[in-house]
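Re: Re: token formats

Sure, here are both.
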Amino acid sequence: MLLIALLLAAGQFAALKLFDYFESEPRAMAAALQAITVVNYTRASLLAAHENRRLALLSELSGREGVRIYAADMLEEIEPLPNDHLIRMIAEKIRERLGKDTLVVLNHFGIPGLWVSFSLGQDDYWVVIPRIQVDRPFPWQWLGWGALVIMLSLLGAYLIASNIHHPLRLLVKAAGRLSSGEYPLPLPEEGAHELREVSRTFNEMTEALVRLDNERTLLLAGISHDLRTPLARLRLSVEMLPDEYCASLKVGMIQDIGDMDSIIHQFLDFVRGIEGEPTQMMDLNSLLTSIADRHIRAGRKLTVSLAPTHLIPLRPLAMQRLLTNLIDNAFAYGGGDVTVMTRITAGNIILSVLDNGPGIPASQMERLLRPFERLDTARGNKSGSGLGLAISDRIAKLHKGQLTLLNRPQGGLEARLTLPIQPQVTAQTKQAFRVNAQPRRQ
């Protein structure tokens, strides 16, 4: 709106300048004709009068209509005309009619008015025309009309901009929700024709994505379900085999079947989605504590260092799946010792899962967050589907957070989860944010 106002003001100023420029020549011609007429009538009157009557006639002519006549001395000092376009144009037109030797001065001897010289025989005279007949009063009414035009234009521009801004704002919000993995409500198809077309096309695209996602979910879920049934029968059959046939082969087959079942479980997690789970104000420390207890009971070496308790909006099952994926991934590739740390900054809670594994090449960090991406060397030589980090990244984005992978300077990998703090405005919630002010360690 400020840019529109500046453009309108500049346009109005340019229009006034153009009008003044093209109107100045007719106005200068009118003022010059007035001065020429006065000079010619004065000169003609003096020529017609007897020499003895000229002084009396000069006295009589002076003062009529504000015009005064003075005797001129061509040796007197003549001031140059001011640098005014209109005054110089008037002087040029006077000289065109009265001769190039005609002197035109403004405010001579401190007496205001336009001074024009003429000669009568051997005598020279000045005709002084009051300046009020030369100057034009400042057109204040133009400013009033210009301000009215600008106000009406700004009002119209505001209405038009509002009509465009509202649908675009809804479109931006819907696109943001779509990029974070959520499906927005249909946009209202209103506003200008082009905006209605954009909203209609976006709604059709969203519906197509929903249908595609539902079909993909149904297909993969069906395949995964159909595979788990024969795998369960196969595992039962393998476990019923006598140990004397091949105990090592039996153990390997059971392990392979378990890996296949785990991969199918990840497929189901990936296609099932977590967008429909409601958000709750929860403490991240409680989820970490329950997960850490399970790992410690299983005999794993897990060190936990937690920041003070702080409530943030979370989807409990989704966040538990994210934390489990990160910690399981650290144990699978990190050499056995895993540390989980949290800290609170000005606007975020930062959770770090640290391991002592071989790390990941920096060029492969972003690629590992995509579905079905695995490394062939270093940390990528384990069995898996390549969906664990992709699921974690999707959940992080659903919480308006960010998941990043960083190589530690002392060796190993850091999976860093950054979650925004979004406190509620009520006093009760603010008080509940800080239940325990002391950090806990396990």
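Second one below.
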Amino acid sequence: MLDENKKQEMFNKMKERKGEVKTVRKIVGIIALVALLIIAIVGFAGYSYVTSALKPTDPESNEKVEVEIPMGSGITLISTILEDEGIVKNAQIFKYYTKFKNESEFQAGSYALTKSMTLDEIIESLKTGRVYREPVFTMTVPEGLTLEQVADVVQKNTSHKAEDFMKKVTDAAYVEQLITEYPDLLSEAILKENIRHPLEGYLYPATYPFFEENPSIEEIIDTMLTAMNTIVSEYTPVLEERETSVHELLTFASLLEEEATAQTDRETIASVFYNRIEIDMPLQTDPTVLYALGSHKDRVLYEDLEVDNPYNTYQNVGLPPGPIAGAGKTSIEAALNPSQTDYLYFLADKEGVNHFAKTYDEHLTNIEKYLR
């Protein structure tokens, strides 16, 4: 009788365990099903959102929205502007869509876009640069100009006098204000005692459209600073990695811009300067002497090389205190991507072709061969 009771007890326990296993399996199955449903719902929601973001924000709208694309804008900034103006639903999706279609080279300008435009129509507009609002006038500031020369350009194209422009860009309170407005571009480095003009080299050289007859000096300066800020922001990760400041970058780039000729190799010239800096050898670049003298000369004399000035790279090792002119994007990129060479010398012949040398003897040979 006792054996029968034990058998019954064992049978009951086995039955209970089987029931527990079935319950666990049922719970696991429910959890798995719920998880699959969640994944499916999230996936469908994501798909629906992306699909919706690829469509016009308002297919029925014909209202024109004025959209300004600043000079030098990259796809990230353009996408953000379009989202802010309600032209696209999501900046990231528009950005990835343009990259998927391998679209680039968008044009700066003022566009009258509508919320009923498709992404392809928006891309085509930005690529062709169709400006719906024609500027009243344009002002071209070439690369390699000093701040005084930029002031002359402003005087020729507007009603403002060059001296009024210079007075504004050298006003201490105004410069301090600009430092707070452009913290990623301007720093306290431009206020150092040996800096000739704080904003030298910071006004980006380009052709600017203006949509009123007489823009203020402040508007002109803001327009050029914004363009430079946009250009420089593209290289922020590289600058952080190399622990290089924007001030150092624009100073270096300005030397390349002033040494450049029609056929010059900026990357190789950059390598010469970097090689000299590495061994504490003066850069000995003539444009810094001319900037130190404050005058233009067709030929730098030996006596000029001895001028006592912090910008004179014949007398001082390393970079000058700040930029000596406005550098274009080509020179800025060359400063960040120099060629890898052992050159320490270079000269430009009468046709503007540069000749490089590793030793001073080789350099003397080039002088005799190409200049004398």
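The radius of gyration is 32 Å. DSSP finds 14 helices and six strands in the chain.
- S.
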